[in-house]
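Pasting as-is:
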Amino acid sequence: MINPKFPTPCKSINHKNNIPIGLLKIGAYYKDKGYQVKLQQLSESEEVLDYDPDEIKITSVFTYWSEYVVEAVEYARENYPTATIEVGGIWASLMPDKCKELTRCDSVYVGVCEEAEQYQPDYSLLSEEIDFQIIHTSRGCHRRCKACGVYCIEPELKFKKSIRKEVIKKKLVFYDNNILLNPYIENILRELIVLRKKHIISSCESQSGFDGRLLRKKPYIAKMLHQAGFKFPKIAWDGSLKAWGNREKEIDILLDAGYEPKKIGVFFLENYDISYEELEHKRIKCWEKGVQVIQCRYRPLDQLYDYYNGRKKHQTSDDYYIHPNWTHQQIKRFNRNVKLHNTCIRFNTLFWARDIAYKKIPSEESAKLINLSYNEVINYLDDVWNPASFTEVDE
């Protein structure tokens, strides 16, 4: 099994965002059938293994990372010429014909491998031990958001009633697309609360946000999430500024459950139908509430490349997808606004100043200035950003 050299954060190859969970389940399935199984992560090493596989399974993630999958197939074809090569995963499922054409693999697997889905991921296949495990309590989502391909890959809703017997580590990361949709979620949360009280688990985290509409229907769920140890709760605000009333109710539900405002995140979809101007006003609403913003840059589901570079002054649609409502400068500016917004939220400051951030002034002076308001500090420093105000874009 091969995990391509995706451009993921370099903290560790076993960072939770780069665990090839599908391959780990497939590996467990094939081991149970008597196969010898190895996992090669090309981000770690491209050294050819002393191994002569009969079959090679290669995973794919985002469609715009297709080139890394093509390179992985080329690597496999060159170094293991007698093996049959199959590509699965997100890109393979969303664009099977294009995947087959570009990679020239022997076959493409579409959707979730149901046989492997019955197995626990085999973490022993990883080169480093990790201190968390990944769990699904459900598959699929009943929403039909235009920017999301979940319902294409997982069209059938499937739910677990219990996960107690799956827990093997103290930290749990849930990969459900819509965890609150599970009709047995209260039973699962009660299990987690008991496990946490017994110190069998220490924390939980949901990679996806919590469905705010479901949270508003059953606000007591937020308290259960908090008791179960879910940290950094996130909700999505894909709609317009007019929807702030509902988003504020959802944030208040999380606050009432015991979450700190600065530990709450709100997903924004940038580079899409809503303009920079409106998204910036939405960001300010989040600032007033004291919560962080998580920006997600939109790419079409059939986008095969993405060479966005926030350090470049000029880029075009030849480099990456730019929505007609947006410009490269607006995307760069909004990304920066969010970064500075979150820095101010995390460090409880009312402004961001370059001289303080880059330690251009003595620490004693910084300590005095950091507690001032924006209107006060601009009398002492240049290049000060106010998170409470709308930021214009210099085109």
